[in-house]
Amino acid sequence: MSVVSQVILNADDELRYPSSGELKSIREFLSTGERRMQIAQTLSENEKKIVDRASGELWRRRPDFIAPGGNAFGQKERALCLRDYGWYLRLVTYSLVAGDKDPIEDIGLIGVREMYNALDVPVPGMAEAVRCLKEASLGLLSEEDAAEAQPYFDYIIQAMS
User: Which of 12, 33, 72, 154 has the most crowded CB, counting CB atoms within 10 A?
Assistant: First the structure.
């Protein structure tokens, strides 16, 4: 939930006006909005490049995934993996725009372990895939912008680890 929504809900629950500290946190959130939007735009505009780099790095690190018997062996299986990489990148952009990890939690992590386990997809392998996605994404950003985006990737990786 965004800072703005959280402040409003907290104040309303307590039948009060937002405090000066809460208003300051909203001001800080809004002041970083343009930068967060630019980071999200950079990532979304470069999705194909990021997914290609990340998958190439993952296949280099884990060639067993694309070898016969691997979870990404075959065109259909590989396409499904690439689809998931794009999905996780999209979740990161949602969270950047919101300035909060809730979109990742609410949309992307509920039941993820169970789903991958049911499909016989190794969850540690997906965590490694997100690490590669993170590296490819952050490599396109300035140091300051990368520092803003990194926690969202780390949150996904931690949830899968």
Answer: 72
Contact 129, 58 (CB under 8 A): yes
Looking at the fold, whether 114 and 131 belong to one and the same domain comes out as yes
How much is the pTM?
Answer: 0.86
Instruction: Quote the pLDDT of residue 111.
Output: 67
Position 116, amino acid: Y
The token duo for 2 is: 């965004």
Which residue, 50, 45, 49, is CA-closest to 129? Answer: 50
Domain count for the chain, please give it.
2
Share of the chain above pLDDT 90, in %: 62
Contact 25, 7 (CB under 8 A): yes
Cβ proximity of 88 and 156 under 8 Å: yes
Supply the range of the domain harboring residue 124: 34-160
Here the tokens at position 89 are: 């990148």
Q: Which has the closest alpha carbon to 122: 56, 37, 60, 58?
A: 58
Phi then psi dihedrals of residue 19, to 5 deg: -75, 165
Helices (H), 14-142: 20-31, 33-45, 47-61, 75-98, 102-103, 112-118, 123-138
